[in-house]
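Morning F.,

Quick status update on the modeling queue. The single chain you submitted on Monday has been processed. Sequence for confirmation:
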Amino acid sequence: MQYDGMAWGIGLLALLAIWVAARILLNGSWFFGWLRGTLGLLLVAVAAVIVTLALDLGTYSAVPADKPLVTIGFEADGPQRYRVNLLQGGTEHTVSLDGDLWQLDVRLLQWKGLAALIGLEPGYRLEKLTGRYLSMEQQQQSLSTKVALSQSRYGIDLWHWLRMGNSDLYVFDPQARRVNYLPMANGAVYTISLAATGLLVHPLNLAAEQALKNWQ
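Structure tokens below.
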């Protein structure tokens, strides 16, 4: 809810910038006309960037308190092929994954400075799910088995830009979290939660417990 509200708030700021730009561009008095035109177009461009950033922030969810980020379940759909059910909040979707092991990558967007002081909650986004074979020969011969779980709209990816530029803009702290390879098994269900040390995986049923026991 917080990230939806932020997206709407930033969107309203963008609309305000567009309104100011329109007043400048449509003003009948063209004293310093070239300056007015340049400033107006600049405000329109800034508004467009703000809108797309708002849409990108809207793809994140607030980290739930005392609840898992996601529940992930596996159902066999053939030899070394699984239907993977992901339950995130009230949203559920299903993907297919090949292999014997699974790995989950999660984006984490922490706040710092004034944003942290006013109590903005950290956000997260599931990034990708990766499958892997135990057999090195199978792994080398297989195609990449990766499933994207989310994507940024219109090519605007704030988290990626901050990570690539090694920047935080004094507000953001973009982090990456990962569940390293664990076994897939028919009927196994796991929950993934966020802790200070990283992502914690908890087996939710006997099939998951047995899969982890055999893996260890």
